[in-house]
């Protein structure tokens, strides 16, 4: 006959087993949709449930991650590990269901698919997902490159010859890449078959976005408080807007194309512009160091990283008011949306 001690032990094992199974199930189930936020100070990707605004998971990245993109199926995120001094040498490939880094893609001494020398793609920063691959900038190498998830390798690189190619955005119907080259005061247009057009802008273009109809590209110039509006058909600057920012950081169109948001790292403000009239609609205070901007596909809200406050502010795009915040993310910046 089983003693009461044996019975108690068995019940404890069963209880632990049931609890462990529940924990595993919870860990495997990552929120959908989910807001992904990089913590530069903690070297982590934070997974936030947008309904509760709670952090529901996290994954380790490489040193000082700055930007992140997600595959169309929502399974994989890739973060660029920029490093503390534009000296990062890796990408972090993260399984969002497992909530862990599954590959650390090293970017030094790379060889291409045919054995060609890609060199070292240091200072990876901006990243976008398109047609099954992740395209990213490599500031230290003055290049852009492409990571293929299926083969787990960098299979293409393209030299731009511009200084501090910081961000990129892709016009997907024409598969045209636009890059913001901070120290060269330019935007580069890379169109198939890799014919480049370099467009002079204001001083220090940093944030960049393409309008939903792909007719305009806006480049926010961090050095002189202006925005360069580029006509994509002619590849020329058709307007220079004096928006008065101290250090513009990011620029994002709303999904309907009616408004444009610009974050100001210098003042901590978020500027809301009317895309058609190109006039300022409203200025909102985000706190210290407004940086990354993320607008979900439904266009109802905007998430804005206030890195100096360790917060992500939430802006209602209908009322143009700050309606909430997400706490506890150390030095947040780059964000992405998991459908």
Could you please describe the fold and organization of this structure?
With 339 residues, the chain is mainly beta. The chain contains 1 helix and 30 strands. The strands form 8 sheets. Strands 3-2-1-30 form a 4-stranded antiparallel beta sheet, with no helix packed on it. A 4-stranded antiparallel beta sheet has the order 4-5-6-7, with no helix packed on it. The protein has a 4-stranded antiparallel beta sheet with strand order 10-11-12-13, with no helix packed on it. A hairpin with a 4-residue loop joins strand 19 and strand 20 (226-231).
Write the SSE topology.
Blueprint: H1 4-28, E1 34-39, E2 44-49, E3 54-60, E4 65-70, E5 76-81, E6 90-95, E7 100-106, E8 110-111, E9 117-119, E10 124-130, E11 133-138, E12 143-148, E13 153-159, E14 165-171, E15 176-181, E16 186-191, E17 195-200, E18 205-210, E19 216-221, E20 226-231, E21 236-242, E22 248-253, E23 259-264, E24 269-274, E25 280-285, E26 290-294, E27 301-306, E28 311-316, E29 321-327, E30 332-338
Antiparallel strand pairs: 1-2, 1-30, 2-3, 4-5, 5-6, 6-7, 8-9, 10-11, 11-12, 12-13, 14-15, 15-16, 16-17, 18-19, 19-20, 20-21, 22-23, 23-24, 24-25, 26-27, 27-28, 28-29
Shape: globular
Number of helices: 1
Given the helix and strand composition, which structural class is it? mainly beta
The neighbouring-strand order within the major sheet is 3-2-1-30
| Helix residue percentage | under 10%
Taking all Cα atoms into account, the compactness measure Rg is 22 Å
**Number of β-strand runs:** 30
Strand content: over 45%
What is the average per-residue confidence, as pLDDT, rounded to a whole number?
92
Tell me about the largest β-sheet.
4 strands, antiparallel
In the predicted model, the low-confidence regions spanning at least 5 consecutive residues are 1-28
Q: What distance lies between the first and last C-alpha atoms, to the nearest angstrom? A: 55 Å
């Amino acid at each position: 006959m089983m003693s009461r001690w044996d019975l108690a032990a068995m019940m404890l094992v069963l209880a632990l087993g049931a609890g462990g199974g529940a924990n595993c199930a919870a860990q495997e189930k990552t929120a959908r949709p989910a807001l992904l936020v990089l913590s530069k100070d903690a070297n982590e990707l934070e997974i936030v449930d947008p309904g509760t605004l709670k952090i529901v998971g996290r994954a380790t990245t490489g040193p000082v991650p700055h930007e992140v993109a997600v595959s169309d199926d929502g399974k994989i995120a890739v973060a660029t590990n920029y490093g503390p001094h534009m000296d990062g040498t890796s990408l972090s490939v993260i399984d969002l269901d497992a909530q862990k880094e599954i590959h650390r893609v090293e970017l030094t001494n790379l060889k291409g698919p045919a054995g060609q020398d890609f060199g070292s793609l240091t200072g990876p920063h901006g990243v976008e997902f398109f047609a099954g691959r992740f395209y990213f900038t490599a500031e230290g190498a003055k290049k852009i490159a492409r990571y293929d998830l299926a083969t787990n390798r960098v299979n293409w690189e393209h030299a731009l010859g511009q200084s501090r190619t910081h961000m990129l955005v892709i016009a997907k119907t024409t598969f045209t890449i636009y890059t913001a080259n901070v120290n060269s005061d330019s935007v580069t247009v890379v169109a198939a078959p890799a014919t480049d057009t370099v467009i002079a802008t204001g001083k220090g273009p940093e944030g960049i976005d393409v309008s939903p109809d792909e007719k305009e590209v806006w480049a926010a110039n961090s050095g002189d408080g202006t925005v360069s509006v580029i006509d994509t058909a002619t590849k020329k600057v058709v307007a220079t807007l004096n928006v008065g920012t101290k250090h513009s950081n990011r620029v994002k169109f709303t999904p309907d194309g009616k408004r444009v948001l610009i974050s100001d790292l210098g003042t901590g403000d978020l500027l809301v512009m009317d895309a058609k009239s190109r006039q300022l609609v409203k200025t909102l205070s985000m706190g210290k160091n407004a940086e990354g901007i993320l607008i979900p596909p439904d266009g109802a809200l905007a998430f804005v990283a206030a890195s100096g406050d360790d917060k992500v502010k939430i802006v209602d795009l209908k009322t143009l008011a700050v309606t909430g915040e997400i706490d506890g993310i150390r030095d947040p910046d780059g964000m992405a949306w998991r459908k």
